[in-house]
Amino acid sequence: xxxxxxxxxxxxxxxxxxxxxxxxxxxxxxxxxxxxxxxxxxxxxxxxxxxxxxxxxxxxxxxxxxxxxxxxxxxxxxxxxxxxxxxxxxxxxxxxxxxxxxxxxxxxxxxxxxxxxxxxxxxxxxxxxxxxxxxxxxxxxxxxxxxxxxxxxxxxxxxxxxxxxxxxxxxxxxxxxxxxxxxxxxxxxxxxxxxxxxxxxxxxxxxxxxxxxxxxxxxxxxxxxxxxxxxxxxxxxxxxxxxxxxxxxxxxxxxxxxxxxxxxxxxxxxxxxxxxxxxxxxxxxxxxxxxxxxxxxxxxxxxxxxxxxxxxxxxxxxxxxxxxxxxxxxxxxxxxxxxxxxxxxxxxxxxxxxxxxxxxxxxxxxxxxxxxxxxxxxxxxxxxxxx
Length: 387
Known about the structure:
The chain is an alpha/beta fold. Helices cover 36% and strands 14% of the residues. The protein is built from eleven helices and twelve strands. The protein starts with 6 loop residues before the first helix and ends in an 18-residue tail after the last strand.
């Protein structure tokens, strides 16, 4: 049904079953034309291309993202080359020479985890981590810890990369946090954006939301974004000249000025090829009526078909007992199987890859992801009978 949009990637990977969409999602064919369009605009317009980028492509992409997330103010969305840049900009809102308390989890992706752990090596910076497991009590435990610790920053994923566990009621979760703490609230939505239906309208003023195009937005690496709460008064010291947009005509002063919209958190000159790709994908889906709700419904069907196929194989490692989450309602778009050791996972992943089944793994966890370019009748895991 959806494979028609992915012919180039499918043709380049014939004979493979790609279960790593959560890591590197296949790109729709329109992204190739978008990549060439950026080159063509650069050749045709040269310096004037910036008028097209900032006057057309960025506002259009902001609106497309805002439509997906039901954000009321598209101009509050700011772009960057990666989420680490945005994470550091958020950290730089604080005076890092003073005490800083950060509340997070033991399951954040490396773009935050590594940087936060490094900062926590300073005596004045405290990193408090809440275990995500047991998943059934996570949100209650996390909110309670926020109330108890009164941190300066709260950082938490919408879908956790090392398990697939998804916060079911994200707006309710954010509102509950906002009710017990005045901390800066940050949600990492990278594994949720364009996968799980997400409505941020009620919490747009309460939390920052980070995501990007590399996973389920299907535009590839190089285009991440952050939804900034309107009226944000933070003054990040890690700031680029794009953050002056909207103030360039103002009289110069000793005080560094910031834009009044999402560009408040902008950096500096970047390659916008990836933004063209993201724009092309989101526009394609809008024109085709492919909503996140439809995507999620389709992937749920794929996941159910996969579990049925896997059950038929009766594999000693890849089975329901080793699946971290049995409840599909608590899942993002990938399954995570926890095995006995890192080496056991690596060996099984290598065996599967040799059989044309592409997965990925983190430590002792093997992940199977699902995307629109898959069909349930193409799943073939019979090789597991010989693993």
